[in-house]
Design brief:
Length: about 90
Amino acid sequence: MAAVVAEIQQLSGRPVVELTDTTHVVGEMPGFDSLNAEEAVVMLGERLGVVFDATFNPFVAAEQHSARTFVNAVELVAEWFDAEEKRR
């Protein structure tokens, strides 16, 4: 997931800031906004061989209109995979 964020930053010509568990990718990564977050979800899905629902965005808590920390985003992706596994 960190590699996807870094790739978006590099492709956009923006600096890559070291991610920590508490980094809010949207808001703390220079220029990384909610549109970039959606691009990251698509890229992540491609790398993992899955298609996330169009409303799935682990970087932003839509109900609170706030950015999630990097560790929270990773946890949400893991939860998504757990839920997919249970559906099978």
